[in-house]
Amino acid sequence: MNIKDTSTSLLKEFAPQMGPWSWKGKTAVVILSAILLWGLYALYIQVFKGHGVTGMRDNVVWGLYIANFVFFIGISYAGAIISGILHLLRVNWRKPILRIAELITVIATIIGPIYILLCVGRLDRLHHLFMYGRIQSPITWDVLAISTYLVGSIIFLYLALIRDFAILSETNEIHIPNWRRKIYKLLSINFRNTPEQVKRLKLTLDVLSAIIIPTAIIVHSVLSWIFGMTLRPGWHSTIFGPYFVLAAIFSGTGVMIIVMYVFRNIYNLKRYLTDQHFRYMGYMLIVLAAGYGYFTFSEYLTDWYTSEKWDAELIDKLFSFEHYGWWFYFANFGGILVPLILIGIPKFRSVKTIVFSSVVLVAALWIKRYLIVVPTLENTLLPMQDLRPEYISYSATWVEWALTAAGVAAFILFFILMSRFVPIVPVWETSEYLEEIKLKTSDEKVLSEKRAREVKQESISVSTS
Amino acid sequence: MKTRILLIAFLVLSMCGITFAQDEEKGVLLNVVYQRDHSAQVVLTATIVDEEEEEPVSGAVIKFYTLADSLEVLLGAATANEEGVAVLSIQEDKVSKAADGLMEFAVRFEGNDTFGANKETASWKDLEMEINFVEEDEQRNIEVSLMSWDDEGNKIPVPEMDVYLFAPRMFSQLPIGEIWIEEDGKGRVAFPEALPGDDSGNIQVLAKITDSDEYGNYASFKSIDWGIAVSHEAGEIPRSLWSPSAPIWMQVTFIILMSGVWYHFFLVIYKLWRIKDYGKNEEKIIWDIDK
Q: Do the beta carbons of residue A361 and residue A289 sit within 8 Å?
């Protein structure tokens, strides 16, 4: 294998994305920064005027922020699944899409918990959670699980980056400023591809892949248990753990496909992020959509059939077009049926329909998180005095929308900045992948030539005899 | 001369304006309700509405008076809420009573820029309610007697009156019976069976007279240990947030999970350290390793 040559040619191809900014890039950064600043202004208003500027009240204490939190933690699953499981299964086609998956994990795991901080009041008492936290509280489990997951994801991303850092610190094929080269060198921790280094790096990647998968499952299960262990209609469900985990993998895969499509078009990466990648990811979506659909049906069927007073009230509200009907049908039918039909039927299947399905399902799953959080809280269980509509019904204010938009903008901005710092397609792994394909192709060619010769000889001997 | 004419014209117009303004003032309707609650507090509730549109007059200051020998003695003032209701709560002994228990009240609204002043008077008689728990032939009964006073201050029974009985619960008052007061001023009803009480079986019985033209609203209560004793002490719930510590199995699971994961993180960091050491003698990447 000639990995050096392939790496060099890949680096040359990826150089433009790490070079000077294009006008489109600059425009995108300016727009995203403006949205981020808008969010910061909203945060300033919220800190100085208090949570009264949000739509949250004593009754509906969670709103957009918690829906965003669950959503971002959900999409962070892309990294754990694509990198972790596919790494352990030694699936080769994963290599070009590894970095996108790992970046989604880290960025989403950083942004998600920020929404918790936005939701709670008295941030000056945040350290009490660590000082006086009770192990028997699901909130404490959540804090510890997410921080553990974040540390694991950062280490995982870093492990996968080491070899590219080594190449970038050494290469003279593309122009890299000295300050940046120094950072690459520092981060490459003397990686020189010695047999011992390769052996240990592979071992650590295997160990972390095996650890990151259960950690990711625990994180989302714990998150679901915050709801599931509360005696509330729509929340108190035994299947919430696996339901949340499945929904998280589903939405994470959807976001992964969207990001792949965007970068493929921006940086012209069709050779590396191939149609085959989209097709395989599309197949994953079909399986996930079917599983998610099954869980959704099971969840609502049992609630509807028992017709327990509070559950029945909630179900009525969710199914009624006067309340949440449109959102509910879009989230639970659109998000499941669109991928199943567009990707499942070969006639409709293409990169564009796979991406379109992903956009639909990601939107549907964000709405689904909102529908899990808000309608349940709008159902008052205890008698309330002074029942003003704004106390019972939740309506997000501009402050919450601004901070939601800022979260999405921060996610995209982080991605753009990271793609400027390291190639969005891993250079070393992709070189290995391409060399393996080359080798396989040449082996197959040799084999087919050999077979052709044998057939020819057989036919000659038959005709002679 | 011209100035004087203008001045006179201005004064005339101003006076007309005042007259017109006075003419524009709207009338109000006042209504007052008397309530003597079970804690011996007198609660006077006045309602003020626009006479023409019958809309509540919020923000109006209502003054409450008790009449003693035809003299008005101020009890207090309250501001009407959005529904035009002003409530004054006072101790019973501040209210003037005649020998026969008659209490006269006046409520006054002194007017504002929009509404004119108004006054309303009302009177109610005081009464004495006694609640007794009587057990006869293994039958438990609640007996209520009502007494009032004649002109000379002698006690007389209050006949023909409905008394409603309740047992206060956490969020509401549970109706437990209704008594018709006979000519002798007494009435009786069976005590309900299997009524849960506190951990000693105590039950508070609240007796109420409501919307009586003569006596207004009156309430009194008395406790008895005829209920079923229910222990409200919560047993130990190890998983509860207020319990001193988490269950052992939870602590063990937590420690195993967290230490298992973090052990591997530290192992990986250690391996990274070793990777750094293994590469310190090499200048360049060794590319032909995979050949």
A: yes
CA distance A342 to A346: 8
At residue B20 the predicted structure's pLDDT band, cuts being 50, 70 and 90, is: very low
CATH code for the domain of A208:
1.20.1630
Which residues on A lie below 8 Å from B261 (Cβ)? Answer: 148, 152, 211, 215
Q: What is the pLDDT of residues A428-450, one digit of tens each?
A: 888 888 877 777 777 777 777 77
ipTM of model: 0.84
Two tokens, residue B59: 């923000």
Query: How far apart are the C-alpha atoms of A146 and A165, rounded to whole Å?
Result: 27
What is the mean pLDDT of the segment spanning A281-309? Answer: 92
CB contact under 8 Å between B287 and A383, yes or no, is no
Flag if A135 and B269 touch (Cβ within 8 Å).
Answer: no
Residue range of the domain that includes A146: 3-7+34-270+393-435
pLDDT band at residue A384 under the 50/70/90 scheme: low
Among the partner residues B239, B245, B271, nearest to A204 by beta-carbon distance? B271
Spatial distance between the Cα atoms of B93 and B81, rounded to a whole number of angstroms:
27
Domain B128-224 CATH assignment equals 3.40.50.300:
no
How many separate domains does chain A show? 1
User: What are residue A334's phi and psi, to 5 degrees?
Assistant: -55, -50
Q: State the pLDDT confidence band at A86, using cuts at 50, 70 and 90.
A: confident
Q: Are B75 and B92 in contact (CB under 8 A)?
A: no
Class in CATH terms, B25-125: mainly beta
Helices (H), A307-334: 309-319, 325-329
For chains A and B, CB pairs below 8 A equal: 100
Decide if B256 touches A, using CB distance below 8 A.
no
